[in-house]
Each structure stands twice: as C-alpha cells, then as structure tokens.
UniProtKB/TrEMBL annotation:
Name the UniProt record assigns to this protein: Crp/Fnr family transcriptional regulator
Keywords for the protein's UniProt record, in alphabetical order: Activator, DNA-binding, Transcription, Transcription regulation
PANTHER family: CRP FAMILY TRANSCRIPTIONAL REGULATORY PROTEIN (PTHR24567), HTH-TYPE TRANSCRIPTIONAL REGULATOR ARCR (PTHR24567:SF74)
Source organism per UniProt: Bacillus timonensis
Keyword Transcription: yes
Pfam family, one: HTH_Crp_2
GO MF annotations in UniProt: DNA binding; DNA-binding transcription factor activity
Occurrences of domain Cyclic nucleotide-binding (ranges): 6-86
InterPro entries: cNMP-bd_dom (IPR000595), cNMP-bd_dom_sf (IPR018490), Env_Response_Regulators (IPR050397), HTH_CRP (IPR012318), RmlC-like_jellyroll (IPR014710), Tscrpt_reg_HTH_Crp-type_CS (IPR018335), WH-like_DNA-bd_sf (IPR036388), WH_DNA-bd_sf (IPR036390)
Residue stretches making up the HTH crp-type domain: 142-215
UniProt keyword Cell wall biogenesis/degradation, yes or no: no
Length: 234
C-alpha cells in the first residue's frame, strides 16, 4: 500500500493545543457512547486516538450516520454559545479511544478572550457546516443510488489508501452501516453494491471496499469535484 489520501478539515494547531490543555483525558472502550442525543451538554471533546461515529436517530427508529471523527477532531461543538444546551446527536465509539474533555464554559471564555482563537474556531465551524450542507444536498437531490455513490466518493477522500488494485477505503463497514450513511435500507445498499461489483467498479473483502473505477462513480452522479476537505465523511 502507498500513502494515505486523507483530506480532512482539521482544527488549527492553536485550537488543537487549546483543546489539549483540558485537564481531563478519558479512555473509553469500543461500543460505548461518548454522549447521547438529548443529554445535557456541558463538555466538548477532542479525539486524541481512535474513531467515533456521530449519528442522528430518526422518527421511524432508524439511524442516519453523519460523520466519522478521528484524531484531532472535535465533537459536541454545536452546543457552544447556547443556553441550556443539549447534545443534538449520538456519538458512538468505533474503536477504543482516548479523548480530551474541555468544559464548554471554559472554552467559551477562552474564545472571548482570544480573538485569534475565536477566528480560527469560526473558520473551522464554517468548513464543518459546508461539509454538512453538501452531504444533505446529495442525500436529498441524488436519490438512493446517488447518495451511495456520493458516500463512497467522500469515504475515498477521508479514508482512501492507494493500492496497486485501486483505492481501499480503510474503514470497516457492514452494509447496514453504509446504509445508515446514505439514509436508505440495507437491502437497497446490497443491490447497488452487487451491481457495482458485477461491473468491476468495486470489490468488497471482509467489510473493506476497494474502488477500482472512481471515475465511473463520479460520472454517474455528475460529481462537481468539490475540494476534498468539503467532500469527506468526517
């Protein structure tokens, strides 16, 4: 395997150092929740190691996966500068993780005191919102097939590893987990993946997808080739 092609919208070095200055670091096991939707929110989190998934429950009891976060990414950020804040999403650990905890009130105070940090945080949030908007645009406008293809493109930008055989998505996924990213059913994803495999566009080995023809996938959804930092799964 050659180099990773990770294209992530990371927080700046100054913000990373600020978050790492938190006086609490916790270790949590895979399969546990960092927080759940509706819980009172008094903390933000910086992922030091491991991976977490941020998702939203739907009215029919299913789940929409919004992003996967890894090292030096913040979760819980949407609670800043709100009264009586509650977490809007669930955050599940996909791997054993080490996480820095910072009190919401402390971070707000430090951002008020340091205009440069506040500006850096605003830029990071702006990029974060742009990624979210493009994801929802694809889910709404492109239909089930387009949502899956768009998700595969985003995953290559976030977790793609170039190999002699194509681009390996270095993230283990069941078909149900992939369906959760696409706001569709596992059965629909099964059919669409089977079609892509039969065309030789992808292959799947033990839950890992390799993209052999990314051009085909992009062409099918008339991909606009947005900058990779906006077209990602984090």
């Amino acid at each position: 395997m050659s180099q990773l092609t990770l294209q992530k919208t990371k927080i700046s070095n100054d913000l990373t150092e600020l978050m790492k200055s938190a006086n609490q670091v916790i270790k949590m096991a895979k399969g546990t929740y960092l927080f759940r939707e509706g819980m009172k929110a008094s903390e933000l989190y910086l992922i030091l190691s491991g991976r977490v998934r941020v998702s939203k429950g739907t009215s029919d009891g299913s789940e929409l996966s919004l992003r996967v976060c890894s090292q030096n990414e913040i979760v819980g950020e949407l609670t800043l500068f709100t009264d009586q804040p509650k977490y809007l999403f669930d955050c599940l650990l996909l791997e054993d993780s080490e996480i820095a905890v910072i009190q919401k009130d402390d971070l707000e105070r430090k951002l008020f005191e340091n205009t440069n940090l506040a500006f850096e945080f605003m830029k990071w949030m702006s990029d974060h919102f742009r990624k979210t908007q493009t994801k929802f645009r694809d889910l709404v406008l492109l239909g089930k097939k387009g949502a899956l293809y768009s998700t595969l493109v985003r995953m290559t930008n976030s977790y793609g590893v170039h190999t002699d055989n194509g681009i390996l998505i270095d993230l283990h996924l069941t078909n149900q987990e992939l369906a959760n990213f696409c706001a569709t059913t596992r059965e629909s994803v099964n059919r669409m993946l089977h079609e892509l495999r039969s065309l030789g566009v992808i292959s799947v080995t033990k839950g890992y997808i390799t993209i052999h023809d990314l051009v085909y996938i992009k062409k099918e959804i008339q991909c606009e080739d947005c900058p990779a930092k906006y077209c990602s799964i984090e």
